[in-house]
Every structure is written in structure tokens, then in C-alpha cells.
Design brief:
single chain, 369 residues, alpha/beta, Arc Repressor Mutant, subunit A, D-Maltodextrin-Binding Protein, domain 2, two-stranded antiparallel ribbon, 13 helices
Length: 369
Amino acid sequence: MHKVELSYLLSPGRSADTLIRNPLMDMLHAVREHGSISAAARALDLSYRHVWGALKKWEQTLGRPLIVWDKGQRAQLTEFGEKLLWAERQAQARLAPQIEALRGDIERAFSTAFDDEAHVLTLYASHDAALSALREQTAARRLHLDIRFMGSVDAIAALNAGRCMMAGFHTLEQPGTQSVAAHTYRSLLKPGLHKLIGFADRQQGLMVARGNPLGIIGLRDLTRPGLRYVNRAEGTGTRVLLDELLAQAGLTPQDLNGYATQEPSHTAVAQVVASGGADAGLGIESAARDKGLDFVPLVRERYHLVCLKSALTDAPVQALLAELQSTNWQALLAGLPGYSGDGAQSGQVLSLRAELPWWNYRNTKPARV
């Protein structure tokens, strides 16, 4: 069975014809109406050679004859050609309402590109419920966030490679110079090149079954025999956080049964715990509440946004900063489980060295010869 591919054109205005146009069907219809290839070509404002060559090519592609090619005779469609036109008429008539709705949806989407007051900001970021809420709020104000959730390391790498305008990642407040976070992010972020933007404080903890039947209260409980843990993927900020907390507690990945079991998001981890596939997983409180789980808080952390210094004055970034500083956003953030904007300085451009003091440059003078 042959497959159908759809395409569209952008034009200043829309014609009265509401059909989806197809060059082959237009040619077949013109040949049947005008009785010759040359007359069909004139009707379509195309050359005879173009129409003849296109019909021959379509016959090879479809493996069926379309035209009765008898010299000196009026050009006629084969039975297969007639059936193609009939099938197309049936499909167009049956799907006319859906086609019109699809056309309208595409036009509305493209209207943003022609709206000088609208902005689109591409953001690669670690999975976060507050960012999803922000995307919904800013869309109403014609700031469209094109968010792609991925690990924090991949998000910052994408920013450095020019694939996005902004990245999102998270760390403990003031992580030490020898911390796991410092070793992970220090080589990716450069003072003077990047600008840090405050976004939110959020709580990370253990997502456990409703009622916490196993009485889990901390990381050391995860080392009990038979207790199953579900982890985030390597390169995610939550995986970095877990390794940080394990090191602080004097534990190793081998102490957790299920450390190698990976899920792509907080929601996916919560779903595994809710379905009984694991007993605990590290994640954000909102993901636990959405799945009806209990939540054991462990640490508060900062969720940061970062962009290149050169992009800070761009219109989409300025629009986002204004939105993050608005009272509407502060109220929405305060209403999300486990989130707070109090100490996050949301929408403020922050010092990379002050917030993440990982860079120590010694001002040594060259020795005199």
C-alpha cells in the first residue's frame, strides 16, 4: 500500500479553494478535462515537457499506467488514473472539516512568527515542574518557551554548542569547591562567558509509597536488605545530587540496590514507585504528590538558569527576566508543592563566582629575568 505525505505552503493570502492540492491529481484532472497533454499544460501554466515528464515519472513510481498514450487519439486516463481521482475526491469530501481545522491550527502557530511583539526562547533544562508551569503562564503573554527536558550536563553542553538560548540546572546552595557538583559543572560554566539567572528554590527528597509503610526517613534506610531504589539517568542534576548526598553520608553507589536502574524524569521515578516497581526514588515533591506518594524531604536546592553573556540583552531573555520578577510568577511558584521563590532571586542576574564559588584564580606575577 502506498503512503501519503502532506506538505504546506506559506502565502500572503488564502485562495478560495479549501482542498489540499496535489500536483499529480491536478495534472490528471486537467488531462481528463482538456483531452491532451498540451492543453492540460496550458491550463496549469506549465510546459508540455514538464507535464509529460512528471506523468511518466509518476507512472514509474506507482508502477501503474496513468494515461492511455495512443498517438492521434484524445488523451484519456486509464482505469487506475480514474480511480485515483475518485479516491482523492472521496478523501477530500470526507476530511474537509478536519483539513480546515488543521489549516487553521497551522496558521495560528505561524502567526507568532509574524508578530513582532511575540518572542520564542529555546530552553534546554533539567526536568522541573516549575518550568512547565512557567511555560503555560508566559504563553498567554506572547513569550513562548520551547523547553526540552534533559539532564543538566546535556543542557549546559547544548547551550555551549549553540543549540539553545538558555539552560537550566540545579545544585545545593553554595556547593563546595571539591563537591560532586563542582567537578561536574565547573568545566562547563565559565565566569565572564556565562550569566547565571535566579529561578527557584525547591525541595528534593525520597518519594515513597503512601503512608511510608517501610518507615524510610533518610538515605541510610536505602541500604536495608531487599529495599529497592530507582535512580535518575547519569548526567542529570538529581543523579549528581544523589552522589553528593551519598558521599556526605559515607555511602557508595554499591550500597543501594537499584542504583543502576534509571528513569528519565521525576515523574517517571514517581510512577515506578507508585506501581510497586521500587520502594524509593530521589525526586521533587510535586512529582510525588501528583502520583499520590508520600515525600521524605532531604535537602533544599537552587534551580538556576544560565545563558551566554552576549544573549543577556536579547529581547526573549529580557522578556523572561521581566516575567520571572512579576508578582504573578512569584504567587504561582509559592503555590507549587516543595517550591519557593523567597531566596531564589527569581529573574535576577547573579554572580557566577558568588553563587557557585568553584573558580580560584591565583594572580601570580611572572618572575623577572
